[in-house]
Amino acid sequence: MITFHATADLKKLREPLIIVGLPGTGLVGSVAASHLIDALKMRFCGYISSPEFAPLAAIHNYTPMPAARIHYSSKHNLVVILSEMSIPVSLSSELANKIFDFAQELNASGIISLGGISIEGGKKVYVVSSDKRIIRDVRPYAQPIREGATTGVTAILLTKGTLEKFPITTLLAESAEEYLDPGAAARVLKTLSKIIGVPIPTVKLEKEAKEVAERAGKGRVRRGVGESGSMYG
């Protein structure tokens, strides 16, 4: 059973947009969402728990935090749902439904999921949405996917958006599959920035992308704690 725990009142938000970042190809969703939280100085407002989640804490600014958590920004009217641990496949449907219900409770204007698609060396960002108007508006920044398939929590959310006539969108940056890809996270955030009209600085991610590329050339890229102390470096 998955439970959403609130530590702050979000009722003051008016039709907020919900951003979702979950682990996947290149850890793009998690890295992008984590960076977004830091860049916009979003406040912690809750966490997600389940007996089936891994016994894991995420460490940020020397502070242990729930690996699956929620942050918000009143200034930008945004809520971010972030997980820094893999979600068991058996919980995909339940988590997607919980996220959808959470969005309905907040009277959210929509949901945008961030992630990666396994095409190493590419620079494109793709879009899939339950709302064709969003596809039209986003086309200058992201390439719509006409045919294909997707899986996991995002797939269930997209389908639910179509059935419930609720705007749910996913942005997918071309990404390396075998290792962390902060460059892809930067690209997906730049696209998000254009869509929502909120400046999101990505200089730090672009610097990390260069460092990852250098380490890849030396054959020592890994997922773990980097020299800077980052779990993602």
Explain this structure:
By secondary structure, this protein is an alpha/beta fold. The chain has one domain: Rossmann fold. 33% of the residues lie in helices and 26% in strands. The protein contains six helices and eleven strands. The strands form two sheets. A nine-stranded mixed beta sheet has the order 1-3-6-7-2-8-11-9-10, with helices on both faces. β4 and β5 form a beta hairpin. α5 packs antiparallel against α6. Mean pLDDT is 92; it is low at 221-231.
Net shape: globular
Overall CATH class: Alpha Beta
CATH superfamily: PAC-like subunit
Quote the average pLDDT.
92
- Structure classification: alpha/beta
Query: What portion of residues belong to β-strands?
Result: 25-35%
| Uncertain residue ranges | 221-231
Task: For the largest sheet, list the strands in their spatial order.
Answer: 1-3-6-7-2-8-11-9-10
Q: How many domains would you count in the coordinates?
A: 1
User: Which second-level CATH architecture applies?
Assistant: 3-Layer(aba) Sandwich
Task: Find the count of extended strands (DSSP E, 2+ residues).
Answer: 11
Computed CA radius of gyration, to the nearest angstrom? 17 Å
Q: Ends: how far apart?
A: 32 Å
Largest sheet: 9 strands, mixed
The amount of helix comes to 25-40%
What is the count of helical runs? 6
